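note to self — DONT lose this again. spent like an hour looking for the file last time. sequence + predicted structure for the chain T wanted, 145 res
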Amino acid sequence: MTQSWHTMMEFEPPLVGCVISGRNHSFDALRITKECVLNIPAAHLAKQVVGIGNCSGSKVDKFKKFKLTPQPASQVAAPLIAECYANLECRVADTRMVNRYNFFVLEVVKAWIDPSVKNPRTLHHQGKGVFMVAGRAIKLPSKMK
């Protein structure tokens, strides 16, 4: 699914807010199916990510064009992308802000990561063709459970 922006909203249940342009094929697909997979790519997929974001799934088989491997999800009909570091299977939890803001609230019903990748350098779109690559992790003490 091509998305414009996302944010973590809650931990239990795990909720993600996601803005998708109403001009995107993904917008209509999510409204109809009420489920999706959010894919979290690593930096090595940067060129494919840009290409995927610059074409429509209504006209192009993105898996074929960008040489990606679909894998079956366990909770939703949409496929996972094998080459991505993480895949989040989601169902729409709230649509009250869709008509006004194109903002979907999604519940993550299953999360997948590639356990062989120890320090993923995930790719994050900041807008207008600018991306950030996750870097060094730091761990700070927390009293949260």
